[in-house]
Write the structure tokens for this entry.
Amino acid sequence: MAQEWYFLRVQVGREDRIRKNMVARLKQAGHEDKVPQVIVPTETVADHRGGKRRIRKKKLYPGYLMVEMELTDDVWFVLRETPGFGDFVGGRSTPTPMSPDEVENVLNRMEESKSQPKLSVQFSRGDRVKIKQGPFENIDGVVEDVNPEKGTLEVAVTIFGRSTPVSLGYWEVEQV
């Protein structure tokens, strides 16, 4: 039987701990050769807090693990008996493996974010914001456009009774 990738549902917020327990239980049962990889899908994101750039890991799919395994009854039993394990994603009677394209997309996304962290922008069009620094400090505005690749926002501020667009970094504003 060939090894395939599966998504497992687990308790949200405990993915790393459940992964660690799962690997230990599989090793103890002697099935580590049938399950070479248990992954918490994450990406590296960069954001600015307090004027400093911070890089952190963000879960792509909270509450899920990706497992490469040869699905036998013994492996299924060990996984199912791990505390925090929910179920397999897919059919009710037998788990459905992920397609090779899905696996490649998730693994590539994880790898790309390691070399080039994605900027974390929590603003969307229409949000009311207050400018924290620069020549327009303490002026309120409305987000007109968000450019996550550059980490910039186009904010409409009212100056002399006219709406004027201003391009700002997302760390230069805060939500009102």
Notes: The chain has a mean pLDDT of 87.
